[in-house]
Description:
By secondary structure, this protein is mainly α. Helices cover 49% and strands 5% of the residues. A hairpin with a 2-residue loop joins strand 2 and strand 3 (43-47).
Amino acid sequence: YTLLRLRLPIEGTPQENFPPLRFRFLSDSPAGSPVMTGHNEGVITINVAEADDAERERRRVALHEPFRTLLGHLRHEIAHYYWNVLMANTSHLNRFRALFGDERCDYTSALQNYYQQSAPADWQSRHVSAYAAAHPWEDWAETSAHYLHIVDTVETAASFGLALKPKHPDAKAMTADPRKALSGDGSFNRLLENWLPLTYALNELNRGMGLPDLYPFVLSAVAIEKLQFVHDVLNVRANN
């Protein structure tokens, strides 16, 4: 639904020459190699073990991740698909490299280095997640997945008519009306101004139930600039 709402292509055309978006949900075979979640030429493969809460949580803890969901996997891999469709060989590429880095650096070596040494200690100053620091392609995928998280959650809040009007006079910055975030000219700033207070409220609601934060991330200025870039790229496509 979100992809269609953003008017993103899911079917290739002879003129545009990219493959249609397809999904495979596979399980590990006892006699074969484990299924790797990933993207290849328009085909997104998801290991169905990620739908098992206990197994997914085990993997999250083992990888020291603050957040791991099946929907997050789908959005991350979909973002890899849209890098090929919307970014490769386009006028956006120079701006992408200035923000995210040069995607031509060796991908396999970058991932090996990440899993051996983890992310730099200061990753949070430049990325939405530790894994985003592994390689520019992963930075794009993680940032784009976060953007889809934001759009979908804000739209859900707006559909319920949720609005934040804190009673304490010192909490005016926490005021939000998600309905306004999705109206008008599609401003990224308006989206962000309503998203951030919403995350604070949702995190506090979860804490009231003894649950982990719904959105356990801190967005640095650089990460926000990358999110705006994703917003701009997707909206250029939507408006064409």
